[in-house]
Design goal:
This protein is an alpha/beta fold. It has two domains: 21-259, Type I PLP-dependent aspartate aminotransferase-like (Major domain) (Aspartate Aminotransferase, domain 2), CATH 3.40.640; 262-392, Aspartate Aminotransferase, domain 1. The protein is built from 13 helices and 13 strands. The strands form three sheets. It has a seven-stranded mixed beta sheet with strand order 1-9-8-5-4-2-3, sandwiched between helices. It has a three-stranded antiparallel beta sheet with strand order 7-6-11, with no helix packed on it. A three-stranded antiparallel beta sheet has the order 10-12-13. Strand 4 (129-133), helix 6 (144-154) and strand 5 (157-161) form a beta-alpha-beta unit. Helix 2 runs parallel beside helix 8. The relative contact order is 0.18.
Length: 394
């Protein structure tokens, strides 16, 4: 690329939520209604989201972390059990396994995609294994058929972490379509569908859905949220000790409009990702994750580059520093969980335990990708990457 024109005076952040006047109006409507806690809009969002993904039940929560925790609790995962997951994820995925008293067991990744490798999962299965928590990483699906074949073979529960995958399709169907286990979504402010904080559990299992509805509101009987309405009753029961995990109507107000706008926002994300794909496809020293054929729709929650230090002569960290100097925000998804202090201390993990995960981590960076990005913003990112690569070749 010639005639580089990188505008350093405008900072392009790694991510921003896409909030329109419609979301603002809906939140104002909720404020005027006087119902700020869990109420009719939360219930409406649950119903619309379940219909959207093609699941029987949806339970709105205050985060995907809550959903992952409740999923394992509702499935009966407990102390002494082992749960297989990936280290290439945010710590919440793994923390919730510890929260139910189980032991997280890490399987290495597919070095082409960053997703958990199903062959590595089977190597980790023991008589104590009771569940798998696969992560649909960056917006690309894991190989669900292979995972559920293992689940059936070894009688394991599957709790899918779909924090990045609200729009992802696996072999033509949205993640969450007729789920065999549970699926957990994140609506954090940087996610494709944002409510500030928030999450959703979906399942086709009525027993799990009913238990989840109770556990997310302190263990109160399921209709207690309505006890202050005209048709409600002050009488309620605590069926078992639960948590304060429920979503509330202010969050749901955002979610309802974001769900209506999801197709529009995803169209823009895909457009930007395609520009990046074309721009970086043959750029020396820059790699792109492989998108497997079974991911028929990529949600493009993240857009990652893989930095080849041997070709470029600079590390991933230096590449990030140079992007920052050119006013481009970035992030790294993720620092492997098994290398975090809490897990190294508790389980004795060391560098080299998951070689493919660690090699992946040392190469990746996430570029800005969000639906509010202008074409000029995208061009600034592309030119910044080119400028750094060209400088390494002088």
């Amino acid at each position: 690329m010639s005639d580089l024109k990188v505008f350093k005076d405008k900072f392009i952040p790694y991510a921003l939520p896409d909030i329109s006047q419609a979301e603002i109006d809906e939140v104002v409507d909720t404020l005027k209604s006087g119902w700020l806690a869990k109420g009719p809009k939360t219930i409406e969002l649950e119903n619309k989201f379940a219909e959207y993904v093609g699941a029987k039940y949806a339970v709105a929560m205050n985060s995907a972390t809550a959903s992952l925790h409740i999923s394992l609790l509702a499935a009966g995962i407990q102390h002494g059990d082992e749960v297989i997951t990936t280290s290439m994820t945010f710590a919440a995925t793994v923390n919730t396994i510890l929260h139910v008293g189980a032991t997280p067991i890490f399987a290495d990744i597919n070095p082409l995609t960053g997703n958990i490798d199903t062959k590595e999962i089977e190597k980790k299965i023991t008589s104590k294994t009771k569940a798998i928590v696969p992560v649909h990483y960056a917006g690309q699906s894991v190989d669900l058929d292979a995972i559920y074949e293992l689940a059936d073979k070894y009688n394991l529960f599957v709790s899918e972490d779909a924090a990045h995958a609200v729009y992802t399709r696996y072999k033509g169907n949205l993640i969450g379509y007729k789920p065999k286990g549970t699926v957990s979504y994140s609506f954090y402010s940087t996610k494709n569908l944002a409510t500030g904080e928030g999450g959703m559990l979906v399942t086709d299992n009525k027993e799990i859905a009913d238990k989840a509805r109770i556990l997310v509101t302190h263990g109160m009987s399921k209709n207690a949220w309505n006890r202050y309405a005209k048709s409600g009753s002050w009488m309620y029961d605590i069926e078992e000790p639960g948590f304060k995990y429920n979503m509330f109507d202010l969050q749901a107000s955002l979610g309802l409009i974001q769900l209506d706008r999801l197709e529009e926002m995803q169209s823009r994300r895909s457009y930007i990702a395609n520009i990046y794909n074309d721009a970086f496809a043959n750029l020396q020293g820059i790699g792109l994750p492989k998108v497997e054929d079974y991911t028929t729709t990529h949600a493009w929650h993240l857009y990652m580059l893989l930095i080849d230090e041997d070709i470029l002569g600079i590390t991933r960290d230096t590449f990030i520093e140079k992007l920052s100097e050119l006013s481009i925000g970035t992030s790294v998804h993720f620092i492997p969980v098994h290398l975090m202090t809490a897990y190294k201390k508790r389980f004795g993990y060391e560098n080299g335990d998951l070689p493919k995960t660690e090699e992946w981590f040392n190469k990746i960076l996430s570029l800005p990708l969000y639906s509010k990005m202008s074409n000029d913003d995208v061009e600034q990112v592309v030119q910044a990457v080119y400028k750094i690569v060209e400088e390494t070749q002088k």
